[in-house]
Amino acid sequence: FLVNINGTLLKGPEAKISVFDRGFLYGDSVYEATRTFNKRPFRIDQHIDRLFLSAEKISLEPTYSKEVILSEVLKTIEAAPFKDATIRIVLTRGTNSDLGLDPALSGPNNLVVFTKEIKPNPAWWITDGVSMIFFQKKIEASGSLPKTGNYQENILANREATSRGAYDSFMINTHGHVTEGTTSNAWVIKNNILFTPPLADGVLDGLTRKALLEMAKRQMLPLPLVEKSLTKDDFLSADECFITSTTRNVVPVTKIESHLIGNGKPGALTLKLLELYLEFVK
Ligand code: PLP
């Protein structure tokens, strides 16, 4: 890891932040995760825009400008020896002068940029696909979600999945609609139509999702794409299923709970979409 804290570059174990930081105390922060392809950051402007949208949703007033954040990200990428790297940007409301929720207790934001070499996806994700379970959310959420430092429900959903031997959970909102994975967007293919839940169901506006929507608009996909609320049954009866995220691209899902999806092997259309997506973003 190479870490940039408020402009200072540090090796991972040396990177430390105050225990009075509000991200630590209250999860009072927003974050982004992107990657580089051959030292070039992926859709970095969109990631920084989404960071600011998340900040606005939790009334966190950035004391860093988008331009400064971009230059700190580029500085970190430049200084790190990795060609293909994960980039995480964390912006906390700042360091508190005392314990207490009042944002007035806080000084300026803390900006942390992490970078670490990204390993290729494990080969078995493509040969076998991953398995998922369903997780019922308790917190009511509607509209596109901010990406904040408070991922408690997602952590519980992921923990439940791994404790039951699955890769991750598809989360279900309080209206019974499947929303997304704990750090990925959700997709199904049925009768040669690609479906993904709408942002209004409480879904993060994923940038991989956005790229696929953009490809659909430009007629670069081999099938139509529809944003629609989806139920558990839509997932269990799908011909194919997959998840997307910036760091993992397209990952086939071949089992949900104890049901095999399609013939239990990664779907041909899913693998085609992965290939088209990688061509598109590179
Ligand atoms: N949904 C959630 C809750 C996430 O945390 C993430 C990414 O971290 C995604 C979806 C996928 O978004 P992206 O494609 O921008 O990585």
TrEMBL record:
Its EC number is 2.6.1.42. Belongs to the class-IV pyridoxal-phosphate-dependent aminotransferase family. The keyword Phosphoprotein does not apply. It holds the Pfam family Aminotran_4. This is branched-chain-amino-acid transaminase. One of its GO terms (molecular function) is L-valine-2-oxoglutarate transaminase activity. Its cofactor is pyridoxal 5'-phosphate. One of its GO terms (biological process) is amino acid biosynthetic process. Keywords: Aminotransferase, Pyridoxal phosphate, Transferase. Coiled coil: none annotated. It is an enzyme of class 2 (transferase). It catalyses: L-valine + 2-oxoglutarate = 3-methyl-2-oxobutanoate + L-glutamate; L-leucine + 2-oxoglutarate = 4-methyl-2-oxopentanoate + L-glutamate; L-isoleucine + 2-oxoglutarate = (S)-3-methyl-2-oxopentanoate + L-glutamate. Pathway: Amino-acid biosynthesis; L-leucine biosynthesis; L-leucine from 3-methyl-2-oxobutanoate: step 4/4; Amino-acid biosynthesis; L-valine biosynthesis; L-valine from pyruvate: step 4/4; Amino-acid biosynthesis; L-isoleucine biosynthesis; L-isoleucine from 2-oxobutanoate: step 4/4. PANTHER family: AMINO-ACID AMINOTRANSFERASE, AMINODEOXYCHORISMATE LYASE. One of its GO terms (cellular component) is cytosol. The keyword DNA damage does not apply. It comes from the Bacteria. It comes from Bacteriovorax stolpii.
